[in-house]
Amino acid sequence: xxxxxxxxxxxxxxxxxxxxxxxxxxxxxxxxxxxxxxxxxxxxxxxxxxxxxxxxxxxxxx
Length: 62
Prior knowledge:
The chain has one helix and three strands. The chain is an alpha+beta fold. A hairpin with a 7-residue loop joins strand 2 (15-18) and strand 3 (26-29). The mean pLDDT is 92.
């Protein structure tokens, strides 16, 4: 599954990344690569939680 993410560097130099299709799904990292790995893990956990609670999965972005 692919979701669009947005990544920004904060004032402390950390990279903050969020997945707009999944409200509250946010992560960060010291590098862009680390932040992207971390959001992938966060997305997996978010989707597992939706499945566990029989919640619908948002439409994938192409």
